[in-house]
Write a structure and sequence with these properties.
single chain; alpha/beta; 5-stranded mixed barrel; 5-stranded parallel beta sheet; 23 strands
């Protein structure tokens, strides 16, 4: 068609323009490099030196040519999901990028002591639970099943090591410079690095991106030793299965790690300060999720707080009381996991000295991720918004696109949240409570995993899919899924919401049979009309 030909023609012109600019930059760099060599060459005549000097003064390098000569465009402080992705994207956009990371391995908390190792242990513990509790249901008889915690941890470390080395490989491939050490902002265009070898390095660049992530929020009265009283980091490296574990905090991290050790044989009790676990979760899905957690043997004590925890040779002694006050109670445990949340890791970075505007530890930025000092940017857990690795990655890409003169954007209404327990829980968009509080008229559609053919055949019937859509336009406002592979199923809904789709759009889209994704289709059908299998 004529429109198609027009698109091809514009694309061809654009490519030719880009090639011409690259040739011009290469020529400029080569010409100025020769001028520099001539200026300092003993064989060059006096007239030649004068000409070279005039050339260098009258024709300074363009930004792109300067990058080719060695000037840094972007210094990224932090090598976690947001930081390493930002550095790679910067390099892909033709900018010279440096990434500073003090941990010694790339990937940040997520890859080293968070998302990735926890998924390895969740998988291992799920396999063990299947072998000990469910294999016989399928005619598979096994005996003398035991746990080798050391091997389990080795498999986890192998996965982590492979991925961290993979990021280093991506840095080399994309020509990102990796500086090992702890960075501190010492100027609008300067980062001072305390190198891993004790040497202090000063880096200068046109732009700085703070991608320093977050750290465990401490609990007053409870001192973490990473042996008996542990954070998520210590809970990922226990040397043996504890007889009893108390988890302080009924959020995503606490429930995931609590379920790991529960499956492996520990008695697990979760103590939550609020009246509900995972407050961000839709109330109906939460009710089903809490029921399943209790069915699996995890005790949940709501509206209570831990006021003290003391470790001894025999274990940990805790004092627990109602959140609103009341009689205190003593509890004993072999291991206590403190999982009350995370806070931005922004202290010690020199931000206060620079006068960077902050709010309760979070760096304040504009829609281009710039702080009140335009050359200094911030992304991920260091700024307001959900503390999620995938959100940080999107921040990093959008931030770098702005720096490169392009347009970057992150739609925070379509950032999914996922709990990797079994069954998983995933959601995107608004909850029913949020819509009611905002006065938005909506309709809801639900479908039980019990009625899904694939879920029935593989015994994964605990779950529900729930859609929330605008009552007038049918535009999807939120989707909430509990069930096997919910973290994968939610992606379809995120994409639909990104494009402003209606529930009818998903309902009229053919889904493979038999698949768990058919439950998503049926829930969408229930929202705009009626489901077939319910």
């Amino acid at each position: 068609s004529g429109a198609h030909k027009g698109i091809l023609e514009r694309s061809k012109v654009k490519r030719e323009g880009e090639r011409e600019r690259r040739r011009e930059r290469r020529g400029q760099v080569m010409f100025l490099t020769l001028a520099r060599r001539a200026l300092f060459s003993p064989q060059c005549s006096t007239k030649g030196r004068v000409f070279a000097q005039r050339t260098l003064v009258s024709r300074p390098l363009s930004a792109a040519a300067a990058s080719a000569e060695g000037e840094t465009d972007v210094i990224v402080v932090g090598g976690g999901p947001g930081g390493y992705v930002a550095a790679i994207k910067a390099a892909q956009l033709g900018l010279k990028a440096v990434c500073v990371e003090g941990r010694g391995t790339l990937g940040g908390t997520c890859l080293n002591v968070g998302c990735i190792p926890s998924k390895a242990l969740l998988n291992s513990s799920h396999k063990y639970e299947d072998a000990t509790k469910h294999f016989s249901d399928y005619g598979i008889e096994v005996s003398n099943v035991s746990i080798d915690v050391d091997k389990m941890m080795a498999q986890k470390l192998n996965a982590v090591g492979g991925l961290t080395k993979g990021i280093e490989g991506l840095f080399k491939k994309n020509k990102v410079k990796y500086v090992k050490g702890w960075g501190k902002v010492t100027g609008a265009n300067e980062v001072t690095v305390a190198g891993s070898d004790g040497e202090e390095i000063k880096l200068e660049g046109k732009n700085i991106i703070l991608a320093t992530g977050s750290e465990v929020t401490p609990l007053p009265g409870v001192t973490i030793d990473e042996e008996k009283i542990v954070s998520s980091t210590g809970a990922l490296s226990l040397k043996e299965v504890p007889k009893k574990m108390v988890v302080i905090g009924g959020g995503i991290i606490g429930l995931e790690l609590g379920s790991v050790w529960s499956r492996l044989g520990a008695e697990v009790e979760v103590i939550e300060f609020l009246p509900n676990i995972v407050p961000a979760m839709d109330h109906e899905v939460r009710r089903n999720f809490e029921r399943v957690m209790k069915k699996q043997g995890i005790k949940i004590r709501l509206s209570h707080k831990v006021t003290s925890a003391e470790a001894s040779d025999s274990g940990v002694n805790l004092t627990v009381e109602p959140s609103k006050g009341g009689d205190a109670e003593a509890l004993d445990a072999d291991v206590v996991l403190v999982a009350i949340g995370r806070r931005p890791f922004t202290s010690g970075l020199g931000l206060e000295d620079m006068g960077i505007e902050m709010d309760r530890g979070r760096v304040l930025v504009n829609d281009k991720f710039q702080t009140n000092i335009p050359s200094i940017h911030a992304i991920g857990d260091a700024i307001p918004g959900p503390m999620l690795a995938h959100k940080a990655e999107e921040d990093g890409i959008a931030c770098v696109e702005h720096i490169a003169g392009k347009v970057g954007h992150v739609n925070y209404d379509t950032i999914p949240s996922i709990i990797y327990t079994h069954p998983e829980v995933a959601w995107v968009g608004k909850t029913e409570k949020e819509l009611k509080e905002a006065g938005v008229k909506f309709k809801a559609g639900k479908f039980s995993m019990m009625a899904n053919s694939r879920a029935r055949t593989v015994d994964e019937t605990d779950g529900i899919v729930k859609f929330l859509a605008d009552k007038e336009t049918d535009k999807i406002l939120g989707v909430h899924i509990m069930g096997a592979n919910a973290g994968e199923l939610i992606a379809e809904c995120v994409l639909a919401m990104e494009y402003g789709a209606s529930s009818e759009d998903i309902a009229r889209t053919c889904h493979g049979h038999p698949t768990l994704s058919e439950a998503v289709k049926e829930a969408a059908m229930a929202t705009y009309d009626k489901p077939i299998h319910s």
